[in-house]
Amino acid sequence: MLSLLIFLPLAGGVVAALVPGAGQRGGRVAGFVSVLFAAVTLGLAIGLIAEFDAGGGLQRVTDVDWIPQLGIHYKLGLSGLNLFLIALAALIWLVATIGSALREWERPSTYYLMLALGETAVLGAFCAQDLALFVLFFDLMLVPFYFLIGIWGGENRVAATTKFVIYTLVGSLLMLAAAVATGILATPEGGQVSFAFSDLAQRPLSNGEQEWIFLAFALAFLVKMPAFMLHGWMPDAYRAAPTPVVATLSGVLSKVGAYGLLAIVLPLFPYATVHFQELMLAVALAGILYGSVMAFSQRSATLVVGYSSIAQLGFITLGIFSLRPEGAQGAVLQMINHGLVVAPLFFIIALLAARSGGSDDLDRMGGIAFRAPVLATLFLIVALATLAMPGSANFMGEFLILSGVFEAKIVYAIIATAGVVLAAVYGIRLYQRSMHNRVGDAVTSRDIKAADAAVLLPVVAAILFLALYPQFVLQRSQKSVDTSVVATKVPWSPR
Amino acid sequence: MDVVWYLVLSALIFCIGATGVLVRRSPLVILICLELMLNAGNLALVAFSRMTGTADGQVFALIVMIVAAAEVVIGLGLIVAMYRRRLPMDVDQMSELKG
Amino acid sequence: MSLATYSWLVLAFPLAGSIVIALLWNRLSGRVAGVIASTAIGLAFANAIAATIKLQERPEEARHATSSLWDYAATAGVNVELGIFVDPLALFMCLAVSGVSFLIHVYSVAYLKSDRGYSRYFAYLNFFVFSMLLLVLAGNFVLLIVGWAFVGFASFALISFWYRRATATSAGMKAFVINVIGDVGLVLAAILLQRDTGTLDLPTVFARAPQVFAHNEWVIVAICLLIMVGAFAKSAQLPLHTWLPDAMEGPTPVSALIHAATMVTAGVYLIGRCYPLFQIAPTAADISAVIGTLTLLFAASVALVMTDLKRAIAYSTISQIGYMILAVSIAAYSAGFFHLMTHAFFKALLFMGAGSVISAMAGMQDMDRMSGLRRALPFTFGCFLAGALALAAFPGTSGYFSKGEILELTASRGGLYDVLYVVATIGAFMTALYAFRMVFRVFYGAPCEEAKQLEGGHLAHVEPFNPATGESEDTDVGFPGEQHHVAEREWEMKVPMAILAVLAIFAGLIQVPGVDDLVTAFLEPTFAGAVLHLHASDATQMLVLSLDALCAIGGIALAWFLYVHRPGTTAKLIERFRGLHTFLVHKWYFDEAYELIVVLPVRTVGRFADEVFERQVVQGMVNGTVAAVRAGNSLLRGAQTGVLRDYALLLLVGVGGLALYFLVVAR
Predict the structure, then answer these.
(1) Optimal mutation site among C640, C643, C649, C652, interface B, most CBs of chain B within 10 A
(2) At residue C216, what are phi and psi to the nearest 5 degrees?
(3) What is the DSSP letter of C471?
(4) What pLDDT score does A493 carry?
(5) Which helix (H) or strand (E) holds B50?
(6) Gap between the terminal Cα atoms of chain C
(7) Do A424 and C70 make contact, defined as CB atoms within 8 angstroms?
(8) Given B22, B96, B98, which is nearest C645 (Cβ)?
(9) Which of residues 401-440 of A touch C (CB under 8 A)?
(10) Contact at 8 Å (CB) between C517 and C360?
(11) What pLDDT sits at residue A490?
């Protein structure tokens, strides 16, 4: 079932590439086929949620010996941690595919194939329950995005791609080394090597080993998010990437990093997690403050959202490393929320840019709400959710995160609240500078078409649903989050 | 006769060939000099073969001749192509592989 | 139907109205949106009355109810339900909010008639009322914060309603950000309460707090101070008041709504609602009382010099809220809420009157340009006068009894509270002075040009312009509307004003010292747990009430002397006290100070982060790596000359070198 979910998008991509007439007319046919497959994938993901047992542990496990000599399993499974991230990925990819199908592309067959490959890799990384398999999918993500930005990107795409690849490759290679080391070092004398999470959790490493392996993993994940000081690739990549790609990049790929911290680092390296807790909290806090300050000094709307993501992912990291169940629960909720708000924001910015002479410069926008009330309303809902307006699920996420950090390290929590105020500033500024005030010189205000609304509405509906009922997520993730967090609490003796 | 004299002659011919490759700029002459170097090698191989009394060296020499023939074919072909395109007959000017 | 059902309906109608209008925004013609919105609030008011009747049927100790729809977030020790808590205080607020809001809705139906944002306006307005009702009915802190923030957002939306004006959007942003600061205070307080009492449920928190916290322990004081940050941000108390005068950028009925019924009274409600916490933390309560008193004095002093009609009323609101904060902080709860109610009546009335005046002046808000509108706007004049009398606490009016009760209870606590009492009394005198300064400057004197035209039956008309900057508006945008509407010509404006005028004068009669105490009796079940039951002795009561009356009459008399009898006196006074006047006109330089202390540093940090840190350090890391690699490869690249003979030489040297090496090694 999970294998089907993972490889269905790729199959869709192949079919879309091979279908007769795929390359003609900017790839309308290929786009249509891709949308179809993405929709079925989302349907599968929703089915998984419907049949998920909130009280159970790992579910729908597929476990096949893949490379027995190296102890690598093809092991997939569904837990409270990845359940909603899978659905998020499927939803954002559907929206991104619809968004792609609305315009014409050069070499469309390849484009849709790459897009689909990206979805397969992300879903695989979320589902993988084997460290080697996870690393494989994690690195596989890089390939389609390298091409997606490098070929179909805008201005300055080569430099942007190079930066993106160098940053993430450094992280990935460190992680590969660390993963191999984990598998080998954890194997007891004469035992069989295994990379399955369940086995590794039973075979703790010594303190010294955990420390450097933790750092390697953390670096890989923090680059992907991106976290403060490791975000050098972000501004160029976000500006160069086509809108559907940046929506998936920021909406879903960044969550793989956060998911990795919660699902892999916490249970496998409990000693190092506690040891480096303050460091990680400090990085997260710096990200919150720096991202927020940068977000309200930017003129480019894309970068406002980009830097705000650094701040939001700072909150998520803060919640995870509070090492408290409520903080981690908040982090899980916030991962979903952030994915749901950031993807439509990028589409909205594309729509705004289309109305202000093709530029995403806030100084050149203004007054777009005048003849575009529907667009303005959708933007307002998303913007308010972004700044974690109470009443949105984002608020509940931040509330839980802050609760957790308050219990753990009160000083960090108090400083982090500055981020909440700053979020209001950049969120409202983004909305006002584009929608309100006098109409800008190059601005033509017109409302969105039904097709554009089809991109935004599913996500906005999801935002509103979670705003009314965040318990939907919290209830299902509770057990797995507890398991992850409890691992760091158990008094633990080195081998 | 001592094998050393053959080796000295071989080394002399090799050096003449190498010097030719290094100092001359005409591709044709360079090709001739290359042949010279190859045949110097052949001489040494045959001399050793004679000294040890086995056929190994002669077999090597035969293979070198075959390679030399192939080389001459390709080399002369290139030179003819260059001539046809009226490219300068000067290897120093053909430096497009510069990094 | 049960009490809880009625209470849910109170919430449901405004929300439904807002959603219906928002979804049908382009299909509603004419005044339909206004009618839907007014009906929704009217139904909410009716349900609030029904709920009150249900509540009063119960025995006194059972006058509360909780009800919840579903689990909102119940995980990891945090347990939040989507639930309400109904008690006399909540219903008192519901009645005041929905009742006054209903009248303001009806007024708006006519006032905003020609505005092209008509549907949007009423969708926001209904949402505003819904938020406020959610705030007062919330059963736990999370839902309270949700209502709290929704109110902040709704105020942002309505303040920047005419979003083509840069002044309006920046005022909206200011209101939003200051409100978020308040939200954060409240969130921190809620998290601390959750940590220490293990729950967020309002009644449970209040029940557990006395056992969990020691008397005046620093944690509970901190919690109360954080709650005060929230309350002060919303109620525009020092030092978080700067957004309220700017909020005058919104349409005038919005000002009435923000100032009278909703929003600014939320802080008073919050402190009243959290009284069990403030009882354990008397230090925080005292700080709150002092800030309330300082605010009332500060705002009254600024209101004395404001020339913008709406801003003058805005400062009077800040000042009156100061009285309420003072009251609920010194445990004079019912007095505070009594004043909240009477203030809602007369302040809504004053704003409605001001709206009518501004319409008559074709959008002009400057009092320097107004005079002698008495004959041109007789009905508005009568209503405004009623409101001003109540504001000035003229004996017998509603404001007199409510403010008098606050003053006498402050005096009854004795000790240092006497200082607060004296300051509050000085404030009362200033209130009367600035209230009638407005009346005399606007309605008395020689009629101005617009007044003369209106007496001749012609309403002044100019192209729409921004009164703050004088900038003209594009008429094709359609908001603000081209037409102006005065109460004399629109019954939708007239009826609410008449009702409010009657209430402003006579509503005080429900709680006259020694005669009846309807408000206190009604609220008694909520405040039954109060430790301090303040009661002023008859002598104090007599003394305070007569002093209050004296202040009111003296203030009115002085205003009459300054503005009617000897109109030139003020100019001389300004000349004499130029420094003081400038200080007051600049509103004690609060805005300038914030610009210097907060805005400028943050902006500088932002610019530093953007221009120095990001470019030099973060990008420097990338570019440094790239440069190092490049330097390395340029060295190697030099070897690739492309000259065949160089390669051959290299080859020879290499082979020769290797041969030599082996020769040497072999030896």
Answers:
(1) C643
(2) 60, 25
(3) P
(4) 43
(5) helix B27-52
(6) 112
(7) no
(8) B22
(9) 402-404, 406-407, 413-414, 417, 420-421, 424-425, 428-429, 432, 435-438
(10) no
(11) 58
Is the backbone peptide bond immediately before A226 cis, with ω within 30 degrees of 0? yes
Confidence band for C621, pLDDT divided at 50, 70 and 90 = confident
| d(C-alpha C642, C-alpha A106), whole Å | 38
Please provide residue A73's backbone torsions phi and psi, each rounded to the nearest 5 degrees. Answer: -105, 150
Tell me how long chain A is: 495
Nearest one of A243, A369, A355 to C120, comparing CA atoms: A369
CB within 8 Å: B22 and C643: no
Each residue's pLDDT tens digit, C62-71: 788 888 888 8
Instruction: State the smallest CA–CA distance between residue B56 and chain C in angstroms.
Output: 23
DSSP letter at C220?
H
Count of alpha carbons within 13 Å of C547, Cβ hemisphere only?
Answer: 19
Asked if pLDDT for residue C95 goes beyond 70, the answer is yes
Q: Which A residues in the span 309-348 are in contact with C, Cβ-Cβ below 8 Å?
A: 324-326, 329
Comparing CA positions, the residue from C56, C68, C53, C58 lying closest to residue C4 is C68
Q: What is the per-residue burial (b if ≥16 Cβ within 10 Å, else e) of A406-435?
A: bbbbeebbebbbbbbbbbbbbbbbbbbbbb
Alpha helices in C444-537 (DSSP H): 449-455, 491-506, 518-523
Phi, psi of A67 (to 5 degrees): -120, 85
With an 8 Å Cβ cutoff, are A428 and C149 in contact?
no
Cis bond upstream, residue C239 (ω within 30): yes
Contact (CB<8Å) C642/B91 = no
Residue A495: predicted pLDDT: 39
The two most distant CA atoms of chain B are separated, in Å, by 51
For residue B24, with 0-12 CB atoms within 10 Å meaning exposed, 13-18 middle and 19 or more buried, which class applies?
Answer: middle
Neighbours of A202 (CB within 10 A): 10
- Nearest-CB residue to C176 (from A420, A424, A474): A424
What pLDDT, in 10s, does the model give residues A161-188?
888 888 888 888 888 998 888 888 888 7
**Run of H or E including C72:** strand C65-75
Put simply, whether C602 touches A (Cβ < 8 Å) is yes
Amino acid at A117: L
Euclidean distance between CA atoms C3 and C51, whole angstroms: 5
Taking an 8 Å cut-off on Cβ atoms, the answer to whether C644 and B94 are in contact is yes
Q: Where do runs of H (alpha helix) occur along C307-414?
A: 309-329, 333-360, 378-391, 398-413
Within the 129-188 window of chain C, which residues sit less than 8 Å (CB to CB) from chain A?
142, 145-146, 148-150, 153, 156, 160, 163-164, 166, 169, 172-173, 176-177, 180-181, 183-184, 187-188
Judged by DSSP in three states, B72 sits in: helix
Q: Subunits with at least 3 CB pairs below 8 A relative to chain C?
A: A, B
Rounded to whole angstroms, how far apart are CA atoms A434 and A382? 14
ipTM of the complex: 0.88
Substitution target from B34, B92, B94 for chain C, most C beta carbons within 10 A: B92
Inter-chain CB proximity C642 and B21 less than 8 Å: no
CA–CA dist C441, C560 (Å, integer): 10
Interface test with B, best of C633, C637, C644 (most B CBs within 10 A): C644
**B62, pLDDT greater than 90:** yes
Q: How many CB pairs under 8 A join B and C?
A: 35
Rounded Cα gap, residues C234 and C153, in angstroms:
12
